[in-house]
Fold Two-component system, OmpR family, response regulator.
Amino acid sequence: MRRMSTPTETLTRPDGSPIRVLVVDDEQTLADLLASALRYEGWEVSTAGTGRAAVRIAQELDPDVIVLDIMLPDFDGLEVMRRIHGHQPTVPVLFLTAKDAVEDRVAGLTAGGDDYVTKPFSLEEVVARLRALLRRSGAGAERPSNVLEVGDLRMNEDSHEVWRGEDEIRLTATEFELLRYLMRNPRRVLSKPQILDRVWNYDFGGQANIVELYISYLRRKIDKGREPMIHTMRGVGYVLKPATAQ
């Protein structure tokens, strides 16, 4: 498998956050190769080596697309897809099948799979198939501008302007970067170490209270007098989600 060429366009979720992919294959080397190629696209990738792990991770990750091997050590890919589609019915699935397993390919597509590739395959082919699935599903639509939106909260990444409804909000540079990280990961719980690494770009000597401090600054500006959007998940981290009442 040869190195991926430089991507010509970056597909993202509609809110601008990275595409989330779940790769399910019990061949660790192959799973790692696929993960590396997909991360080169700028996507977030999680891997699973068993059907049970795949179902659990899918519930936690809420993937935009799944790469799924038919043959797994506990139960097969068709059962994995059935269980995942039970709670995420619209997520596209790209099956990996053995070259001579025609019946597997037919069964996968009949059962609700969206596409398949046969082993051995090129990384370019897998990426191309996934990009096509993402465009069809709408999850991979490119942002028409550098504006992030979560509920009634909007951020222009170019001009550094932020609004909550009709009110413009003035932020410091650090507050802006923290809010941008939260807005790029809406409804996703982010831990203090994750925030420290992404916003401050280095280990702050274990002083996670700097995160608490800046979260409090943001709350005063974003949430004060309004339905809250920034929530604390005790012992886990913070999550930004649309207000229950707009």
Notes: The radius of gyration is 20 Å. The longest strand covers residues 93-98.
